[in-house]
Design a protein that fits this description.
Structural class: alpha/beta
Oligomer: single chain
Shape: globular
Order of helices and strands: EHEEHEHHEEHEHEEEHEEHEEHEH
Strand order of the largest sheet: 1-8-2-3-7-4-6-5-9-10-11
Largest sheet: 11 strands, mixed
Distance between the termini: 22 Å
Bound molecules: threonylcarbamoyladenylate, magnesium ion
Length: 342
């Protein structure tokens, strides 16, 4: 995209969004334009899912490969009707428990969904968000909204309006600023089109929570054939600054080594920094203690990475998070952020 456009940011109350602001945004969506908006996970970049030209604008603004399909957001069962072709009992049970909320279901797509949304594939990812701004926008636009995270391709997902502006300013007309996103990392993606239910992306809805409703679940991509979730490239969600994952007991040495080499170092920790001497060493320029609680750590993770990425550092050291299934989504995002692979 060569021509920069003016990006307007409108503040909107995240509990009781102003109907005038929502109507303006909904009208833009209905006219085929893009609107960035907050959800309970991260900010999304939305377009009318029925409008192939509008959806194409998402790919252009993000620099996203056309092979990476989008999630379609719906407000209610009525909007769902012409998005999916089948609604199996498993979908009903999962939706009854977790919708509205941070769970995305992959299902056979309705023929009325344009191919550009699903990267030409026969399945569509669908989710019903519970953020009041997202819900108000969907209801007012009265169309399903295709929306990936509102960042340029491969970059960190945004959890605040200013993250969106930094990444997509000049490329989109409107950002609804509803403050920071409460969840902080992207939705859990579950594939319901195979013989067995399969987790494609860990997220705020944990495997244990899914298993409670549907019993066993396969984890990860199938071994052969084309990628079922093509967006799951190894490198993804990355800061621009070099980032390294370090075990807790090696943090002090990694810090000293980098400091000794004259590098400006930032550090993120999960465990209590007072439990060791690292935090008192003056060898790093910025230090952020996230939380030993996985939910709180998820809420703050991208915000911390954005902040360090803006701090003119040479290196970001991140403590490897604790073991355990409740940390799976954070482990997944950190491994991708630290990866140098394409
Ligand atoms: O929390 C979220 O899910 C946020 C908010 C805005 O809703 N959206 C988001 O979208 O994270 P995006 O585009 O950044 O990630 C969508 C993921 C990608 O990994 C993509 O490959 C996968 O969902 N996906 C989309 N459609 C799919 C399909 N038909 N089959 C398998 N995976 C699909
Ligand atoms: Mg994304």
């Amino acid at each position: 995209m060569d021509h920069l456009i003016t990006t307007e940011t409108l503040i909107v109350d995240q509990v009781a969004p102003d109907i005038h602001v929502i109507t303006l945004a909904a009208n833009l969506i209905r006219r085929g334009q893009l609107v960035a908006f907050p959800t309970e996970t991260v900010y999304g970049l939305g377009a009318n899912a029925w409008d192939a030209v509008a959806v194409q604008r998402i790919f252009a603004a993000k620099g996203r490969p056309g092979s990476n399909p989008l999630i379609v957001h719906v407000a209610d069962p009525v909007q769902l009707l012409n998005v999916v072709r089948e609604w199996p009992e498993t979908a009903e049970r999962l939706a009854a428990r977790f919708w509205p909320g941070p769970l995305t279901l992959v299902l056979p797509k309705s023929s009325t969904i344009p191919d550009v949304v699903t990267a030409g594939g026969p399945t569509v990812a669908v989710r019903c968000p519970n953020h009041p701004v997202a819900r108000a926008l969907l209801t007012s636009a009265a169309v399903p909204i295709a929306a990936p995270s509102a960042n340029r391709s491969m970059e960190l997902s945004p959890t605040r309006a200013e993250h969106v502006l930094r990444s997509l300013g000049g490329r989109i007309p409107l950002i609804l600023d509803g403050g920071s996103c409460p969840g902080g990392i992207e939705s859990t993606v579950v594939d319901l089109t195979g013989e067995r239910v399969r987790l494609l992306r860990p997220g705020l809805i944990s495997i244990a929570m899914l298993q409670e409703i549907i019993g066993s679940i396969e984890v990860g991509q199938q071994g052969d054939g084309p990628a079922r979730s093509p967006g799951q490239m190894v490198r993804h969600y990355s800061p621009r600054t070099v980032m390294r994952l370090v075990p807790t007991d090696s943090l002090a040495r990694a810090c000293r080594d980098a400091g000794g080499a004259g590098l400006q170092v930032g550090m993120i920790r999960f465990s209590n920094p007072h439990a060791s001497t690292v935090s008192s060493e003056p060898t790093f320029a910025r230090f952020i203690h996230l939380s030993c609680d996985p939910g709180l750590a998820a809420t703050r993770l991208y915000d911390a990475l954005h902040e360090l990425d803006q701090s003119q550092l040479d290196l970001i050291l991140v403590e490897i998070p604790p073991e355990g299934p409740e940390w799976t989504a954070i482990q997944d995002r950190l491994a991708r952020a630290a990866s140098q692979a394409p």
